[in-house]
UniProtKB/TrEMBL annotation:
Residues 33-111 form the RRM domain. It comes from the Eukaryota. Residues 1-28 are annotated as: Disordered. It comes from Torulaspora globosa. Gene3D superfamilies: 3.30.70.330. This is RRM domain-containing protein.
Length: 116
């Protein structure tokens, strides 16, 4: 004998739109001037890496700062652009793009740096 039948609750179109409008917990951090880049190749010298990141991101706006810690690189960098709009455009355009044989992961930084 089959178990008790369950009724499927139908969502109204209004409920569906409200549900879609609520951001999920997995959404990115709110837009900032600073981008966090990871999945960078470790075999590239730090000066060459900084220069290439600067040239790549300057296509999308004025790059204020490129930070790569030479001791604790671990394939990470922070890039600060002049405006949030420029940073957003760079993030959308360059996420998952190939860079020295690896795909870049670009997201907004958790912390904001001050622009000078």
């Amino acid at each position: 004998m089959a178990g008790p039948a369950r009724k499927k609750r139908k969502l109204s179109s209004k409920s569906k739109m409200e549900k879609a409008a609520v951001p999920s917990a997995s959404t990115s951090v709110e837009p900032k001037h600073t981008l966090y880049i990871n999945n960078l190749p470790d075999h590239i010298p730090v000066t060459r890496l900084r220069a290439n990141l600067y040239f790549l991101f300057s296509i999308y706006g004025e790059v204020i700062k490129v930070s790569v810690n030479p001791r604790k690189r671990r394939g990470q960098a922070f890039i600060t652009l002049k405006s949030v709009d420029e940073a957003n455009l760079a993030m959308i355009s360059l996420d998952k793009e190939p860079f020295f044989g690896k795909l870049l992961n670009v997201s907004f930084s958790m912390k904001e740096t001050t622009n000078v």
